[in-house]
Amino acid sequence: MKESGRFVLAILLMVAVIVGTNRLFAPDAPPAAQPTAENVVQTPAGGEAAAAGTTTEPASTGTTEWTAQAARTQFEPEAVVVSSPLYRYTFSTRGGVVTGAELLQYRSSVREGPVDLVPDGGAGLLGYRVRIGDRFIDLRDREFRPEGATSLELKEGDAPATLWFAHVDPSTGVRIRLGYTFSPDDYLVEVKGEVQAPGQGGKRYLLIELGPTLASHEANQEEDQRSLAYVVNGYRDGIESVALRSVKGERIEEGPHRWVALKNKYFVAAVLDAGQTREGGLGGVMAAPVGQPHAAQVTTTLPVESDGTFSYRIYFGPQEHSRLAAIGDGFQDVNPYGWSFLRPIVRPLGHLITWALVAMHETLDLAYGWVLILFGVLIRVILWPLNTRAMRASLRNMELQPRIKEIQERYKDDPNKLGEEMRRLMKEEGFNPLGGCLPMLIPFPVLVTLFFVFQNTIEFRGTSFLWLSDLSAADPYFILPILLGITMFVLQWISMRSMPPNPQTKMMLYIMPAFMTILFLKLASGLIVYYVAQNIASLPQQVLIARERRRYQAARLGVKAVR
User: Fold this and answer.
1) Alpha carbons 72 and 127: distance in angstroms, whole number
2) Which of 328, 344, 375 is the endpoint of a domain?
3) Per-residue pLDDT, 210
4) For residue 68, how many other CB atoms are within 10 A of its CB?
5) Residue 421 located in a structural domain
6) Claim to verify: residue 373 and residue 500 sit in the same structural domain
7) What is the pLDDT of residues 29-78, one digit of tens each?
8) Domain contains 40
9) Are 157 and 290 found together in one domain?
């Protein structure tokens, strides 16, 4: 069973126990968009296509590709390296594209050295083509010569620096320049360039290709590959995420878009518009299968200005919430929390919880493990009044049970009258059948959100705590799941001792903790740290609630004895 399936089952069982206990002891992938003439740029044969913006006119049926042999002369590509304390990006003079994206502050879990987003033997993460009128130039095999510096080494505090590449097509005279501007303390790269085509008319577009995939550097590579997806943020339709494994045929996401990205569990490679108001932004997006699993070629278009210039941005780096949020345009949601139907609730709560945990870590200078323990205790302290109120509501419901049964017996043949009398009782006595369990369900949205936070938040990746080497991975010794089962057993045992004997509850006392231990065996250890801390913090209140429940029951028995 997958981790998400285990977690869903665990949540359903816990909710069932809470609601069932109160019942016993209170009153007894959106479908793919279809291509349209307005949003598709027609391309040469061979299955290559790219979605364009809504302002793009359809190409004529005579579309061709320039294939002049003079432009494809053999040459030995060279590597151009740009480094800073954060990254080491490698560009190739073949196509002027990124063939290496090492993130120096993140170590690979499957090999020596840092994370590199480009798979071994891959052609790179970027590829370019240019459309001029109804013709295309494929730049992926063309030589781009560096202009000026052939390498950059940026140190902390250095000013941004720009690396330029240029290509001239000898058969047509078309000149393409690409300029990448780097900052030493940021993964965001500003890109600007120009397309000069003397004597060539027609609208011009730069076709930018991402993919076909990102390298996996996680110990659980299967989970990381399941997270592989392309994500778009459209001006009209907002953020859409499509798993790469589900790309079985050509898919079109109608533009214009703010950004398009490839992401896995913790890292992202993205093309973003220039970050300013410009007509159309990025165009539409087309994803096409490449004949291998968890991979797809993702292409977007960028309109070239009338003077031949263009600009956009790229981001090859970690999914650090603060960095992505600073970029804007909803980029922090490139890896959206939760299943689609839960995102309206989980997404804002996930951002809030992530912010709170990171702020506690930085402000208090505590390891994330201790932050999670403190967070679990704080949640229980905040919920203390609600839990007390829930217990007293449950006792009140128990007190009204004889009157409820009397009404049910008297009007069992008259449903309308039965409902009327029950509503009157609820109004007069402040009776709420669910009053004893609703406050106890409040922690579950936090628990559910934390599950997704640990699936996606890079701050917990590789973070050690006590015997745990990685809070985002399962406990290798199963100590935490066992401790979780023990704390659940103790809480249920304390509660059961203050309730009337019931065979069903006694059975659940032993079955539920054991079953929950099994379900949590493979879940993120950080999530269980939080849950165990919350259970332990609940013990004092559980003891007080049990004592008050016993006093109440003793008082009821005393009154009956006098009568």
Assistant:
1) 16
2) 328
3) 92
4) 11
5) no
6) yes
7) 334 443 333 343 444 333 333 434 443 333 333 344 443 333 445 678 88
8) no
9) yes
Dig out the tokens for 171 from the structure: 């058969």
- Spatial separation of the C-alpha atoms in residues 234 and 249, rounded to whole Å: 21
Looking at residue 459, the DSSP 8-state letter turns out to be: G
Beta-carbon neighbour count of residue 14 at 10 Å? 19
Both 244 and 213 in one domain: the answer is: yes
CA dist., res. 154 & res. 554, Å (int): 76
pTM of the model: 0.75
Q: What is the pLDDT of residues 349-385, one digit of tens each?
A: 888 888 888 899 999 999 999 999 999 899 888 878 8
Averaged pLDDT, 83-101: 92
Q: Which two tokens stand for residue 239?
A: 């953020």
Instruction: Check whether residue 22 and residue 55 sit in a common domain.
Output: no
Report the C-alpha gap between 348 and 355 in whole angstroms: 11
Any domain includes 358: no
For residues 95 and 126, state if they share a domain: yes
HSE (CB half, 13 Å, CA atoms) of 483?
Answer: 16
Q: In residues, how long is the chain?
A: 563
Within 10 Å of residue 521's Cβ, how many Cβ atoms?
A: 16
Could you read off the pLDDT of 257-286 as tens digits, one per residue? 999 999 998 999 999 998 764 555 899 999
Confidence of residue 296 (pLDDT cuts 50, 70, 90): very high
Q: Are 234 and 256 in contact (CB under 8 A)?
A: yes
- In the DSSP assignment, the letter for residue 509 is H
Same domain for 138 and 84? yes
Segment 98-111 mean pLDDT: 92
- 337 occurs within a structural domain: no
Find the domain containing 526 and state its range: 3-28+365-389+435-562
Number of domains forming the structure of the chain: 2
User: How many other C-beta atoms can be found within 10 angstroms of the C-beta atom of residue 92?
Assistant: 20
